Every structure is written in structure tokens, then in C-alpha cells.
Amino acid sequence: MVRNWMVAAMVCAGLFLGCSTEESVDEGSGEMLVSDRGASTIAHFLRASTAEGAILPQTFIRGSNTRLAQPGQLSYDVESKRLIVPNGGDNSILFFEDVLNQSESVPPRRFLTGIGTQLNRPVGVHLDSAHNELYVANGGSNNVLVFGNASTIDGATAPLRTLSGSATRISSISAMVLDVSTDRLWIADPVANALLVFNNASTLNGNVPPNRTILGTNTRLQAPQSLLFINKQLFVGCTNSILRFDDSDSMDGNIAPTAIIQGASTLLSRPQQMLLRPDKDELFVVDSGAAAVLVFENPSTINGGPAPLRRLQGSQTGFMDPVGLVLDFTASP
Fold first, then answer.
1. pLDDT tens-digit readout, 20-74
2. What is the pTM of this model?
3. So where are the chain's domains?
4. What are the helix (H) ranges across the chain?
5. According to CATH, what is the number of the domain 28-328?
């Protein structure tokens, strides 16, 4: 009993100034993974709901056995704890199983690589669990590859379908997202400052034109790098800003965003992968320019230049060029 009281007192005095009892300390919940393109690592943080400041990760996934080389934006299956990593520096896709219990130089369980895959600097992946298909944003070839049998695929497997060609209007690709509810594929084109929308994503193949193109000065799109759907709202990470469009079903052409999050107080520089905390209206943003994870409250109504609610930033985080993000609030702690 005395020892437990002493530990609580030491924690309060050294880590949580102002607390008086062990019960008053909010230790947080959930776990977070951050891929770093510059360091070729994946950092694993505990207590994602309260993580803040220049804190050390619980562990890193790194080293030659991992095959990590410039990892991009991540895809994660909460039920299986499977992490799918687009590996731009190695022209491969890596599959890590039970990833929250892995650390340091752990090899991927499977990896997709080889000439037959057509992989060329993949920057993002999206898992379509309903069709067991994996969509890959192929940055080096400015196209989208779709692989079948995503749960078991391995080796030099060829894509099942390919979205490629001049009719697609893809001049570059930095991110994509599959809206499963509408069967639409959205692509961010940072060179054209455009968003491309393709209907019937589950059957797309070949040199197919987009059904809609969001493009023009009113859109305020500037080198878009990331996309996130929250219900019908679309969030777009751009240079120094995040744009929110409130009706993704109808947006088309030179349309203005509903809200613009930008300004010095936001700390936004090059926002990359974004995720919503499932139990609260909080938006987690990996920012490669700020080398930080920024957390904003009330993203569904936010506008202007608010400061982040929390920020995870500093030399101890190991961040150099962070781009990918995973949140798991089903995990413990």
C-alpha cells in the first residue's frame, strides 16, 4: 500500500503537475501508429486519446528485416490488427499481422513485390473488405492498381484491374479514398490541383474518364495530399490548410469549400493522412511539414484558424517526415 502511494505521488510530481491522486490521472486510451517516410519507420504510441508533446513512442518498427523504405499512407484492419503499408522506396506493399504486438526489426508476414505487380512508388492503399480487394495509389506511374484476394495475396501477383491512361486525367496521384457506401473512388491530383471522382469503383478498369472533376480557383485546392470522408463531408489536406466540403455527393467543377482551416495558429504545413477519433469529434492529422500529429476538435463544424487541441511533436517522437496514421481505440490501453 505504501509503495503504491509513493508511485502515485512520484507520477503526479514528475509527470502530471497539479494532480493529487492516482485516480485523477487521465492515462488515456487507444493506440496510434505513424509511418515516417524520411526515417523509414513506423512509430507506435500508447494512450492515443491524450498523447501530447515530445514523447517517446512505446516502440518502433524499423530495420532491414521490416523492408520498410519510405512508407506512405496506411491501411489498417481493426479486427485482425493487420497493417498494410505502401512501400514507395522498395516498390512493394507490406502486410504486418498483429501489428500492435510487434516491434523493431519484425519481418512482414507477406509482401507484394516484383515486375508483375506493376508497383512503382506506391503512396497509398485502401482495403475494400467487402470485395476482398486492395486499391493502390501508384505514384510513380500515376495510376491505380486493384489487386484481388487481398487477405492472402503475396509475391509477384499481377493486378486484377488497372485505372490508367490519358482519359483518366490523372496527371499525378498523392492520395485516394474509396467511398464504399457509394462505390466511388476519389483521387487527389497535386500537380493539377484537382480531385477526380470515378463511379462504379468496384468494376473500374482501363482508360476510363472521371465522372466528376473538382478543379478551379474557387476550390482553393493547392497540392492536395490527403482525403478523408466523414459521413457526406470530404476533408482535403492541402499545402498549409485543410478544406472541408459538406456535400460530397453533388460537388463538381469549380466549387468553393464549405470551410477552410488554415493560419499560423493551426500549425498546418503539409497535412497528410487524417483520421477521425471514433468516440469523439476529434480530427487527427499527420503533418509532414510540421513533423507532428495535430489534433483538432469539432472538425464537422470547424472553420478559420484554430490552434490544435493537442500536438505530438518534438525530437523524441522520432518524426522526420511523417505521412501515415492508424488509430485503434479497441486496443488496450
1. 333 333 467 999 999 999 999 999 999 999 999 999 999 999 999 999 999 999 9
2. 0.90
3. 28-328
4. 2-14
5. 2.130.10.10
